[in-house]
Amino acid sequence: MPLTILAIESSCDDTSAAVVKDGYLLSNLIAGQDVHRSYGGVVPELASRAHQANIVPVVDQALSKAGVHSTDIDAVAFTRGPGLLGSLLVGTSFAKGFALAMNIPLVEVNHLHAHVFSHWLREKGSDGSTPSLPFLCLLVSGGHTQLIVVDEHMKLNEIGSTIDDAAGEAFDKCAKVMGMPYPGGPHIDRLASGGDPERFSFTRPSIGKLDYSFSGLKTNFLYFLRDELKKNNAFIDDNKEDLSASIQKTIIDILVDKLVIASRETGIKEIGIAGGVAANSGLRKKISLLARDEGWQIYLPELRYTTDNAAMIAITGYFKYLDNDYAGQDVVPRARLKI
Predict the structure, then answer these.
(1) Which among 80, 20, 93, 18 is positioned nearest to 51, based on CA atoms?
(2) Radius of gyration (Cα) for the chain, nearest Å?
(3) Helical H runs in 75-214?
């Protein structure tokens, strides 16, 4: 019998729904929220209201594009956390209501697990390979920076994490002080392509072997700009490409140096990256170059699967369903949820 999963993702400011059938993705719809751009970041109350308006039409379109009816769905998976509590409540409530109305199982998904499991997404007609286990993944986004070992599909082990800020936050905050709009990471990536990454040097943390820290780098960058602007009030505009290239190189070097150590210590050569920062062109290029030197088999997710999306929730829910790992109607969202 075919197994069809409907998935809901609403952890932050994107409302997304996807359908997976027998492990293959049939649809993945996302409704964004441009309202936050003028505020320089996501406003939780506005996000939850937008989710309420978007979730029904997004699910309807996901089912329609997949060519399935609500009665064809065998289970509904949803993001339980981590994320913005108000946003999670909308997705959780919809999933619970849908499962109850259709009398089908409910599957809760950890958003962090789902980013890692984006590497197992498949589409009909595609020849993309999926990782062999054990698998080492660098999960890097605006809220998380972690090194994760996947020993089995439902057995994930965090071996390193940031002790303060995430890499994605460092990108966005450094972009903000240079006057770039939110989210700033993609703007730095674009400008970096025309800059000299060796032009400026910034501080690098000295902490635990597999842990990360980016708060000191953000402070160093801020103070560096403050001092240079005292000498030349047009310093940022005159050097924006070189500044972008230099800060991007620093962040990427911090990320990949720990990844190399983790690979050598664990002996794992199956390597992947996930999360929003996995879309960064500099990081993807650096990982590809390292693969040759370290003998890695690398997995770089398609750009559309690096940001928050329901497709990754769907494939994770699919594996959990196969393990009979269901949630009850009393399940509640969690703003903080670890691997």
Answers:
(1) 93
(2) 20
(3) 85-102, 111-117, 167-177, 185-192
Q: Within 10 A of 260 (CB to CB), how many other CB atoms are there?
A: 14
Residue 251 and residue 283: Cα distance in Å, rounded? 9
Residue 305's pLDDT band, with cuts at 50, 70 and 90, is: very high
| Residue 130, domain member (yes or no) | no
- Residue bearing the bigger pLDDT, 170 or 37: 170
Mean pLDDT for all residues in the chain: 94
Same domain, 72 and 195: no
335: Cβ–Cβ under 8 A, 6 or more apart, which residues? 81, 82, 83, 84, 85, 88
State the CATH number of the domain containing residue 270: 3.30.420.40
Q: How far apart are CA 58 and CA 61, in angstroms?
A: 5
Whether 128 is in a domain gets the answer no
More confident residue, 207 or 213: 213
> What residue ranges in 22-132 does DSSP mark as E strands?
24-31, 75-81, 106-110
Contact 222, 177 (CB under 8 A): yes
Burial label for 71, CB within 10 Å (0-12, 13-18, 19+), is exposed
In the structure, what pLDDT confidence band is assigned to residue 124 with cuts at 50, 70 and 90?
confident
Residue 167 has pLDDT above 90, yes or no: yes
Are 139 and 285 in a shared domain? Answer: yes
Is the pLDDT at 70 greater than 80? The verdict is yes
Q: Is residue 335 part of a domain?
A: no
Strand partners, 135: 150
Do 89 and 163 share a structural domain?
Answer: no
Residue 24, domain extent: 4-121+305-322
Is 65 in the same domain as 161? no
Of 59-73, 115-129, 300-314, the poorest mean pLDDT is in: 115-129
DSSP-derived 3-state class of residue 194 = coil
